[in-house]
Structure formats: structure tokens, C-alpha cells
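Priority: medium. Attachment 1 of 2:
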């Protein structure tokens, strides 16, 4: 069953929030990564693999932060990380202002993560995360011209 037409591969027994967020950004051309990069998000879906960890971030947060890092992250000691930190902070602020939290279990607000109602909510988190990261990356690219 398709949860949301804008992200048709997301949902129960499909792809998780972290995977879907990264895939959406790759498909849109917002980041330049191979589809195989999505694999690294599998263990970071919401609530860290369903472990019940109340401190775990929403998977859409994990995918979004990975996407930002893929563009502005460092590969060597001493490289500047200030752009990543600034963009991640802007993203986290926007997400928390919109949804009230960045934590998976807080966003679920007592609903089982596998419930249909929560799956619809999660699809919205994925879409907002991808839209916001895409916007931030475009703005940063314009700033650097």
C-alpha cells in the first residue's frame, strides 16, 4: 500500500524514513550520490532500528543530516565543518518548529510506529525533511556563487 504518492517507496515493509529521505534527495538531484548510498541509512531509521530508544532522532532527521554532510562534510582532519554545522542547525530548527520535536518517539506521541496513522505522519516528516534540505542546499549554492 502506498502511504504517500510523493514518496511511494516509503512505508511499512517498504523503505524507512532515513532511507526514503536520502533517496528522495538523490532522485531530485539535490545531492550527488549513487542509489547504493541509501544502504547506509538502513540501520538509522527512526528510533534506531525500532529499539525503543527514547533519545533516537527521527529517521528523516538522520537522512537529512547525512545528505547535508554528503555535500559539505569533511573527508580529512582539519577540513572546515562550519557549513555543515550551520545548515544542520537551520534544518533542525525548521523541523522542530514545524513538528515540535526531532525525536522519533516524541513525534509518534504514543502511537505505534507501524500504525497507519503514524505512517502517514512519518511520510510528512520525510517530505518536509527533503524539501527543507533541498531548499537549504540551493540557498547555500547561491551564497557561494
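Attachment 2 of 2:
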Amino acid at each position: 500500500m502506498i502511504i504517500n504518492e510523493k514518496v511511494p517507496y516509503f512505508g511499512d515493509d517498504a523503505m524507512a524514513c532515513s532511507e526514503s529521505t536520502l533517496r528522495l534527495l538523490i532522485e531530485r538531484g539535490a545531492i550527488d550520490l549513487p542509489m547504493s548510498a541509501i544502504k547506509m541509512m538502513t540501520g538509522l531509521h527512526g528510533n534506531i532500528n525500532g529499539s525503543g530508544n527514547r533519545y533516537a532522532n527521527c529517521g528523516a532527521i538522520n537522512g537529512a543530516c547525512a545528505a547535508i554532510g554528503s555535500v559539505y562534510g569533511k573527508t580529512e582532519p582539519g577540513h572546515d565543518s562550519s557549513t555543515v554545522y550551520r545548515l544542520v542547525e537551520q534544518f533542525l530548527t525548521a523541523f522542530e518548529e514545524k513538528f515540535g520535536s526531532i525525536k522519533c518517539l516524541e513525534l509518534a506521541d504514543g502511537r505505534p510506529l507501524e500504525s497507519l496513522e503514524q505512517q502517514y505522519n512519518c511520510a510528512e516528516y520525510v517530505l518536509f525533511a527533503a524539501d527543507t534540505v533541498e531548499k537549504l542546499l540551493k540557498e547555500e549554492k547561491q551564497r557561494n556563487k
